[in-house]
Specification:
It contains four helices and five strands. It has about 140 residues and is an alpha+beta fold. The two termini are about 20 Å apart.
């Protein structure tokens, strides 16, 4: 199987990458939008359309928003302030260590970049023991 880490990411990759992390449970969430958890703590979830995330031209609520936890406010700001990044936030998420990404923009990331976001989300929510064990098995390149 060829290495596809450089190809554009797909929404299906979010599911695959989240499920590949250890100790993950999946809950259907509302409207069957999956919520990926580690130790009972969400790290990635697919959000229902909400009034705080809308198309600026039509006012229509985005139906494809994915929420990823991040390790720190600095990490969040780095992702949402970079004008080339597809990540965003809304006032509803002020003070919340997460970023939003529309499913329609996932392809602006490579699969490898998406994998890093999912792994960071998992690490930010996993217990210290689980995070240490995962990091021991996956040292930085």
């Amino acid at each position: 199987m060829p290495n596809d880490e450089g190809r554009p990411a797909r929404v299906e990759d979010v599911h695959e990458l989240a499920l590949a992390m250890p100790h993950v449970t999946v809950y259907p969430g509302t409207q069957d939008n999956p919520v990926y958890q580690v130790g009972g703590r969400s790290f990635v979830f697919f959000r229902n359309p909400r009034p705080d995330a809308v198309d600026p031209e039509t006012g229509e609520r985005y139906r494809d928003v994915i929420v990823f936890w991040v390790p720190s406010e600095g990490d969040k700001q780095a992702l949402v302030q970079d004008e080339t990044s597809p990540f965003f936030t809304t006032p509803h998420f002020d003070g919340h260590l997460s970023v939003l990404l529309r499913g329609s923009r996932v392809g602006e990331l490579t699969r490898a970049e998406l994998a890093e976001i999912v792994q960071d989300a998992w690490l930010s929510r996993a217990s210290a023991r689980r995070a240490r064990a995962w990091l021991d098995d996956h040292p930085p390149s």
